Amino acid sequence: MEEYKENVQDRGGNVKLSSKPEEDDKSCSRVRVCSNIGEPVPQASPTHGDFSDPVYKEIALANGHINRMNKDELRAKLAELKLDTRGVKDVMKKRLKNYYKKQKLSMTQSVTAGEATDTYYDYVCVVDFEATCEQDNPADFTHEIIEFPMVLLNTHTLEIEDTFQEYVRPEVNTQLSEFCVKLTGITQKMVDDADTFPDVLERVVLWLQEKELGTKYKYTLLTDGSWDMSKFMNTQCRLNRLRYPQFAKKWINIKKLYGNFYKVPRTQTKLSSMLEKLGLKYEGRPHSGLDDSRNIAHIVMRMLQDGCQLRINERMHEGQLRTVPSSAPVEGAPPPHTPRSRD
């Protein structure tokens, strides 16, 4: 569904975007990144009011040396340091720079050796909906969620701890198109035998509550693009006369995070492209919501290993999609609760 979402969105949708210009999320690494140069500029540590510490010069020199290395040299150095050697040149450069940065800063006690890459969220819930669709959707076509998957990723162990998956029975376009069945692998019988969205959402909330997310553990939702929440979740709640769930009002858009962290254009942030650039292969059936979510989680794991810090970068506000600026306070999703009816 990922590439299909891209195609539909490019033709125009009914999601209103904020009139405010988007601000790149530069918070995914432990350093601020100059958007037009691409070189890390470390933030001052709590014990230094400026960059006078010699460690910052050492980091800059190391970065300059890494920038001059070719792909074979990068791969050899990564192998020597027992780091992952997969990925394209820019990915390997980023990985090597983050390694040396951590090594240098650990000497000044700014970073503790062996520290988990992301220190805020305990868990990430990856969501990638599948929805009703037609090959050439009319402008007023109503997309209804027909698969609700979740993959629970532990950011400390970098392991998928659990998954949730249920199919959902549509109530507006009850008959799936041949295109939809072929694209998603979801058959008419699967949705006919399923419950409607309100019942499935209630079980999602119970599943999240059982994991003690938002109470004992800090967590956030993560999607492959804006449409899962701003379009599909928003439309589905409106159809079922439900208030938009508070726990899903803010999330991480992996496309933005990946693009800003590795400094690549939007055209290189499709799921297949991200996996390829990181040296990963797609596992499972493309356009299966659960399999897509698992593969997105693999990308998150690799980004955490490369030094990326996860931060919410999108939200819903009064029915509109907004960008969360990098200057916003870091926060997790609230404890999950079943939304009330609009009636």
UniProtKB/TrEMBL annotation:
Domain Exonuclease residue range list: 123-309
Catalytic activity: Exonucleolytic cleavage in the 3'- to 5'-direction to yield nucleoside 5'-phosphates
Xref: SMART domains: EXOIII, SAP
PANTHER family xrefs: 3'-5' EXONUCLEASE ERI1-RELATED (PTHR23044), 3'-5' EXORIBONUCLEASE 1-RELATED (PTHR23044:SF61)
EC number: 3.1.13.1
GO CC terms of this entry: cytoplasm; nucleolus
Residue ranges with Basic and acidic residues bias: 19-28
SAP domain ranges (all copies): 66-100
MF annotations from Gene Ontology: exoribonuclease II activity; metal ion binding; RNA binding
Major localization class: cytoplasm
Transmembrane segments: none
UniProt name for this protein: 3'-5' exoribonuclease 1
InterPro entries found in the cross-reference section: 3-5_Exoribonuclease, ERI-1_3'hExo-like, Ribonucl_H, RNaseH-like_sf, RNaseH_sf, SAP_dom, SAP_dom_sf
